[in-house]
Amino acid sequence: MSSFGAAPAPILTEAELKLLQALVYQECGMHFDERRTHFLQDRLLRRLKECRVDSFYAYYRLLISQQGKDELAKLLENLTVNETSFFRHKAQLDLFQKFVLEELFKQKSARREYSIRIWSAGCSTGQEAYTLAMLVTDALAYYYLRNPLPMELPLPKPLIPPPWRVEILASDISYSVLRHGQEGAYSEHQMATVDYGYRLRYFDKVGERYAVKKALKEMVHFDFHNLKTEYLPQRNDVIFCRNVMMYFDEAEQKRLIEKFYRCLNTNGFLFVGHAESLLGITKKFQMLHKDSGTAYQRVEVRD
Ligand SMILES: C[S@@+](CC[C@H](N)C(=O)[O-])C[C@H]1O[C@@H](n2cnc3c(N)ncnc32)[C@H](O)[C@@H]1O
Predict the structure, then answer these.
(1) CATH architecture, range 14-79
(2) Whose CA is nearest to atom 9 of ligand 1?
């Protein structure tokens, strides 16, 4: 290995591109077709410079070596698109809050099973998971307004009224976005889609940033999970995996949907991004569509 300093940037040959594309696909499922090759090449070149490696092939050898594991993680982090926002795609969130959660509260209360588990898969910097935490908290409060508890709650009232337990898992393949989510502090710009009612109830102003209040933060647990692997979090009532599958090819999307089917409880719900769809990919989910919001519910196969 040698530094190339001011020397011309190394050329990426067709064969090297194929090797690196295949390695990235095998590691995380991301597929770089012709439209995204330029992006891949740009990010690879940045990592090559950072590592002071003078050819793409040498860089590939580093990635597949034992000592290249950290560098592989860094490369994957550099290839992800982390765009996200609070309350992203309101129609879908309305469907979640007004239909899916109502359904879950009713069914679970009838079974005296008072726990709800939601997974934000590909959570980026955490805005989706905290949005879901705010929506569930409000939905439960509204549920109790209509179905009062037989006893008074202790003061200060807990965010989630007992006997309910709500767990939200937020996972990603990038450690840097997970750290940001875990920290739970957002700039004015990132808060643009959070109206003042939510800001007042769920955030503290700390310097220039808005910090998620402790009680809401405790509902969300951040963890590393690569959606390419087989061992993914089980027993979820709802999975949100929005704007992640669009970077996978059809074969990988199919595999992921199969895994999500197994990661969901009976009759569980799956939300995918606005530009993503399960149509033509699986028959194991049925589509729910209300007021421009779409979700998918697990179809139970009788044997
Ligand atoms: C565009 S963001 C979507 C964030 C959020 N779900 C939303 O819709 O606002 C896509 C996220 O998926 C993550 N991602 C990509 N491939 C992944 C994989 N194989 N396993 C886990 N996360 C992955 C990226 O790191 C990124 O943070």
Answers:
(1) Orthogonal Bundle (1.10)
(2) 84
